[in-house]
Amino acid sequence: MALAASVLAAPVLAPPTAAAPLADEPGPELIPNGTFDAGHAPWWTTPDVVADTSSGALCVNAPGGTQNAWDTIVGIDAIPLVEGESYRFSFRISGTADVGIRALAQQNQAPWTATYETNPTTSSDPALFEGGFTSTLEWPAGQLVFQIGGSDEPWTFCLDDVSFRTGPPPEPYRAETHSRVRVNQYGYLPDGPKRATVLVDDADAAGVAWTLRDAGGAEVATGTAEPYGDDRTVGSAVQRIVFDEVRATGDGFTLEADGETSYPFAIRTGLYAPLTADALNYFYLARSGIPIEAQYAGEAYARPAGHLGIAPNRGDTEVGCQAPQGYYQQWSCDDTFDVQGGWYDAGDHGKYVVNGGIAVHQLLDTWEVAARAGRSDLLGDGALSIPESGNGIPDVLDEARWELDWMARMQVPDGQQYAGMVFHKVQDDGWTGLPTMPWESDKVRQVHRPSTAATLNFAAVAAKGARLFDEWDADYAESLLAASRVAWAAALDTPDLFASVADGDEGGGPYDDDQVEDEFYWAAAELYLATGEGEFAEFLAACPEAETAIDPQGGFDWRATTALGRIDLAMVESDYPGREAARASVVDAAGTYLKAAGSAFEQPYRPIDGEYDWGSNAIILNNQAVIATAAEITGDASYRTAVVAAMDYLLGRNGLDRSYITGYGTLYSENQHHRWMAHSLDPSLPSPAPGTIAGGPNSAIQDPVAQQAWPDGCIAQLCYLDDIQSYSTNEMTVNWNSALSWVTTWVAVHADAEGAAASAPGEALPGGFPVWLVIVLALAGVLAVGAVVVLLVLRGRRPTA
């Protein structure tokens, strides 16, 4: 989730082919000799190639075996870039191989800040690319460059008809959608909620008629949609379609409404177990310090180990500390540390304890979710495709252990300043470009000063891990608990050491957090549940966070962790005196999220200002987790229905008619921001793997691609680009996939099992009576009858027939 930098390697603009048509009347041509009729001057190349214009285009023979796109460049200087000025940019390219290249408008000197980037792919036939942008740079002598390096094999690149002119700004980007009828493109459960949303022109219009058809076109069901008025998050009037009563199963169903037809979808059981496995297998691909092997990940995702120090890579086995600067002046460090392993956090190569903490917690929690439901087989040994399968330990715990072991290495050893605390993160000393392979990056790695937040994250998850691993590896569990105690004591001694947002974060996200009462609460909760010791119960009782409601607007995340401790206190059997209060607070928060889900899209997310946050999809998932927990606590079926219905939004029933989960649905996100799963930049690289969730709409549009797409802002649900360069809307992160893993596990065991939706433990029957209450009353009745019989027998009488 780290922010990208605006340097040569920085992502900058959406592909020109995605932009709306530009207005007429461009300004004067700013490119001399863009048709190469007079040779190649004033164009230049890097020394590894020679320009040849004998064919009428500028062609170069690019060498193979280069590592980076910028290793081989064709460019031109003296291009004025005026801040606030809009430009049109077009060019024609071809090549003897299908290679993704980078075309940029940027500074002509370090740090090579770019104001525009597009990433076309060459083909044998010359293709024209056109686009436009508004400059964020004031640079009188800029340059246009075509970066064409990074190919394994030699190839020939040709460029022609280059034009660069001033002109009106491009129209705001508008995504193409298939239909105004928005459905869960993956599918619905036969006994679960089945809803869709249709966008209409008139908020006052009566409900439109709808028809459900099977794959053969036969009519299955009909009805009338429910008007919901205007929805400002999509900028349209909306209506809701409900077809819950349909029990037909199969693939290829479609909904027709208001003259339009939806994407196809399935209605069947068994939808969520495969998605759960894919969501969890994501973490193996994110591992650092280990080769990703084809036998587990598939040929497309096999790769060498990253950050083991094999040249040119700077490894994580002997990492020095960040040089003292600014906020960090009070900390110095001359040693090096072995911080290998763990998961790469997101699209970059950084590893961040606070993101790792919430991700580990949720993976450990998936095991408890499945075990409580009697479905530990779903996540047990052999359930995932990882090297540890077959070792007798549940695979999801093995995967969590990979990150736990790394977090333990981040704990400051004895004899060092801040011993027992945990380094906040390890990252590169500067931003790398896209794509950059983790085994090829030559950036210097550095650990950043410990923080109280990171220390408490480790204390919490190490204690939780100790409790869960005790059954499988008692020695490991003991070591985790010992490390957790050390971290807890260190945090108590240093309760206010915070990460800085201002200094020293070139190359990684700051993950700053100067409010750590919630982390103290979470860590104390996990230590109490692991030990039962009064010290931690007393801390919890005195902690102000114990009285704090779970955030009713935003939801929990790495910065707000109260819910993590609250849910475990509510769900794990213990003698904690405040357990019932914890359970009640979870139910209260779930009720708030249930109200938020009362829209035509039924996503449990309604920020006060209507503006979607960075990682909005993860917020929805984490809110689903709270609702799901309330379903277990209360047995109220409305909670379970809300969890399942919210999956519709993530799988296509949304403002963009798109599934945000790679590989699931008809139109799904597949160009998430990532350094090596970067197929859109280099066709030889893979796209993100199935089961990867994109961050989702972000009203703040905090990357240049999104800012160019919507210079005047965008409508909440529409603020998303499936573009590898749009890191603020389309990143992939471990703590977002952990949320997806948690929710899909819960749905798989509580709704998508044979008969689960009809007879789930604790479900309310029609009329609102929980099953448990009916059973208790029935048993009471049986006992009462039995007592009467006994009395009658004792009195020598028999009951009449």
UniProtKB/TrEMBL annotation:
GO terms for molecular function: cellulase activity. Its EC number is 3.2.1.4. Residues 177-262 form the Cellulase Ig-like domain. PROSITE patterns: GH9_2, GH9_3. Pfam families: CBM_4_9, CelD_N, Glyco_hydro_9. Residues 1-19 form the signal peptide. GO terms for biological process: cellulose catabolic process. It catalyses: Endohydrolysis of (1->4)-beta-D-glucosidic linkages in cellulose, lichenin and cereal beta-D-glucans. Keywords: Carbohydrate metabolism, Cellulose degradation, Glycosidase, Hydrolase, Membrane, Polysaccharide degradation, Signal, Transmembrane, Transmembrane helix. The chain crosses the membrane at residues 769-794. It is an enzyme of class 3 (hydrolase). Residues 29-149 form the CBM-cenC domain. PANTHER family: ENDO-1,4-BETA-GLUCANASE. Belongs to the glycosyl hydrolase 9 (cellulase E) family. This is Endoglucanase.
